[in-house]
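Obj.: predict assembly geometry.
Materials: sequence records (below).
Method: joint structure prediction, all chains together.
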Amino acid sequence: MITYALAIDIGGTFTDAVLICSDGRSWTDKALTTPRDLLEGFFHAADLALDRAGIGLDQVDDVVVHATTVVTNVLIERKGVPTGLIVTEGFRDVLYIRDEHRYDMFDPQIEYPEPLITRDVTWGLNERTYADGTIGIETNADAVHAIAKELKSKEVSSVAVCLLNSYCNPENERKVRQLLNEVAPDVFISLSSDVAPQMREYLRASTTAINAYTVPITRPYLNALSERLKKSGVAQEPLIMLSNGGVVGARVAGTYPVRMIESGPAAGALAAGYIARKFGIDNLLSFDMGGTTAKACLIQNGQPLVVGMFEVDRQYLFKPGSGMPVTVPSIDMIEIGAGGGSIARVDALGLLKVGPDSAGSDPGPACYGRGGLNPCVTDADVVLGILDPLNFLGGDMALDLNNAQRAVQDLADKLGVSLMEAAFGIFSVVGESMAAAARAHATDRGVNYRGLPLLAFGGAGPAHACYVAERLDSAQVIYPPMASVLSAFGTLVTPVRLDLVRGGLCRLTDVDWNIVDSIIEDMLNEGKEALLEAGLPADSVAYSFGADMRYFGQQNEVTISLNADPRTARDLQELRSRFEEDYEALYGVRLDDIDVEIVSWRVTAHGGATGREATIMLADKPGKPKSSRKVYFEHEFADVPVYDRTALAPEQQIEGPVIVEERETTTFILPNWNLTVRPDGNLVATNQRQGDR
Amino acid sequence: MATLLPQIKDKVTDEMDGIQLEIMWSNLISIVSEQAKALQRIAFSPIVREAGDLATALFDSEARMVAQSITGTPGHINSLGAAAKNLIAVFPPEKLYPGDVLITNDPWLSAGHFFDITVLTPIFRENRIIGYCGSTIHHTDIGGYGVGAGARDIHEEGLWIPVLKLYERGKPNDTLHQIIRRNVRTPDAIFGDLAAQVSSGRMGGERLNAMCDRYHLTDIHELSENIIDRSESATRDAIRELPAGTFHGKTSFDVPGGEVITLKTAVIIDTDLGEITIDFAGSSGASTSGINVVMAYTHAYSTFAIRSILNPDLANNAGSLAPIKVMAQKGCIINAEYPSPVNARHVVGMYVPFPILKALAQIVPDRVLAEGSGAVWTIQIQGRDNTGRPFTSSMFNYSGGMGARASKSGLSATCYPTGVAAVPVEVLEASIPIEFTCKELLPNTGGKGRHNGGDGQRIGFRMRTGKEWLLNAIPSRLKTQAEGLQGGQPGASGAFLINGEPSLEARKRLMDANDEVLMMTPGGGGLGRPE
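Observations (raw structure tokens):
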């Protein structure tokens, strides 16, 4: 019996749909995102893909998986409903004071986002938990009831509760929830000890505030989605992609929308992990370049890395530190302001700079002919001949070469170089800044980037990846099929998964296994419940274990993955050596004299591999170039043959330089690289000079 | 097809084009920034890991700073910039070998007090030194008096490490290691942090060599020349756009003990040379308490003030700093001489930018900001916990309000000039037996104006030990106020209360078990007449 699985990824501009049949056939399509009612675009894109397959929604009997920007939109556009905050008395301004840090020391003009929750709807509660978990003052019922009444009178429909030290004992916060429920049962309540149970009050409050602010929008949205799918005959609850690459049921997701913020990019990283595993490659670097930014993500042992913190809504020149911090697990990515729409300029020192300012889609690069005058990366690509102005989006959107040349010529005059040199300058500076970001990202994680294969996707990724690969001494670049809807595809090849973390601060020498036992048991239960709800059979839920550890006296932890449930062996020496191995790999030192402590325990509950695959139609016999064009590269012109991707046949080999075109993207392979077409539809470029470098 | 690598021309005098230079320059900056990130992550010293009180920099073979990390504090960064030359003067290249690591905490040669230890590693490429990697971080302890201004001369302030080799040809200098270990209160943390500095220096060297491999460079001489030349001429050009002349500024503020310090500047703008000279003639004389500032630190905060107003986008390096000269008479409070105590030099040092800003306000009124609350207030606590085990907290700090800016209000509870963060309440409560009673803004303490100054905050705490404890607190601006600018009103002055009573003590004080501290940090000045 065949089954169908559907994935919908709602991005800023497009909503992508991928439909996969268990026999390997697949269909994809795109529709414009509908910001006012995202579900409209959801069902429109779904219909387009379903129509191609000639089936109805009711025939989707495998999963429906969804990645969405709904949470991010609420945050950036500040569309949330009035939200309140309850904190320990004396600490009402936690969201205003932040960490007192100026993220750009030299610039006195910096700005921060306005807090999501204002002072007039923030309440201080006379209660106290200490850092050792003991309670000094219990939650007082009258005080909470009084707050609940004020919540009602101020029409606050969602509230964040962030009490001091609740990361190590949630009792007072839970009492607040219970008491609020008694008086105001309709108010959404987000407890910091549930949302982000980790030390550091500002980070936890920021994360909890984001959750509280977005719950009232996200939960109805997901409920509506479930309803409409049910009405259309889809039996299963939809699954939602989380920032950490996990997939959970809509109900769990709706309780913690802060975990969904990066769901689209996370899905892209998962697709990269899937492809790495398929290729039998342990480590690779995914390179996703779109219109305004480029993202790189390191895949290690076939999996993207997960980190504990990221930022949303950067306010000031995209600078790190100018956004709101979020401390929930998220796929570890580096994002820089370098995409097709990034603007090139000459700075006061006469240096060529590209980005982070972007021309966006309106007016867009000069070549869009919509009034944009600034030279952008896409303009440089057109001037160089990498992009065919008449074949953009399959010819649906002609680009204006003259406009592009005019814009780049202005820049060339300022630099005192020729038009073509300036265009190549833009191409190389943007490539170098991606490579620099990727190097930093890899080095920071103790990974040697040299020789790592690259995976190119996103609209602009395939045109630039080969050059970036040169800068990283990469041996290989992989160009997957479905590159423009790869994130949606990623959601379908992802096992259901939930990452859990609980504080358990303790020196290794003082570990009390009874406490550890209850912490881990708690997480196992929560994980199991969530996975069963997502439709997984009980016997296929598996768990993996980890711990955050550090040297006693440090405050930043290293997350260690453990081979088995640590309660089985109870081997403290083994825990220490696992930590020290990773620590030394990361930072190059090992401190034998210093105690090691556990900060948190981690459990990941996950299902098995999904087994879903998509095969790609290729030509029967090796295709010939459909044309050739002059491309300017490294100070000279070369005639470069141009192929249609659909005309390529399995095992076909082509020497670079070569261009491969498809509807939404163009692949540019440099000289000295050879392209091979894999039977599964992936294109692989291999560096021919690896030996003599 | 030509080689895919950028063509590096042979002659030193050749100018690189804007494309090549951009690519390699950003490479250098990414090397030092990664070093700083790694150091901050693995540091034991809470002020480093939570507050970012550190600096890393890369120097060329002549010990000129070519790139520095974007994190850090002005005091560290700009004094690290000058420190490399001082260390190399003691150990010139012919006395350095692969595997050597230099160290010092000499206040006059590096960052102005013993807590800041500078580590410098020569970078070898084919047996030749092509540059140096340096870092300065604020360590948890250095023996002696501890945090605070109470020492009577420099020798009471702790262990003085002259310029020495911490490692010789890859081997630790045992004598020095043992001396340090015996003379500090928290040896594990110090050695953990020194190990981090040493490994970050080594990694920086590896990264620079890898970059040279990538671009087929034998050294970074030409690159460094290009970076420094361009930065210097860009800075001179920016200065030439200012009106020539001499402009005066003055600021007064009170320090622990109640003493009022006055800093006076003459900012001399020479548009022919494209140079700015800052002369502190007429400023207060040396203090008997440990708030004296060495010239390197004064220089650091002075050049910072100019750079942050003139061209904050330009990377900081030997070239962008060269056109700014700083002078002060010997022995005055901001050009301290041996054996003046200097431990709490940041109290005065962080006010150094204000008279300069006031002078600049006369010529670039739209770029400056009003006076802010001044120095961050720093605290250190020592005592014994419930079980009798002694503890020493690291230094932690809180900000008042920043001065209003020409087009927007000042940030509340945020400091200018320094950029250090506050250590979170929960981190402190987890590391020492302290209980905070409040940390909240003080509304309307920022001066009113067309744009208001940032508000100060109140921070209260007590100890949970049931025993006596030692408090070392360094507040300032308890009597004076941050002045408004262009008709703006002044910010509120601060208050430092023990059990509700104002305290003006400059020295470490012994506290009773139940004593409570309440600090109200000052507000920043407003800018423009209030509407």
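Conclusions so far: The domain at 80-217 of chain A is CATH 3.40.1360 (Dna Topoisomerase Vi A Subunit; Chain: A, domain 2).
To do: check interface contacts against the pulldown list.
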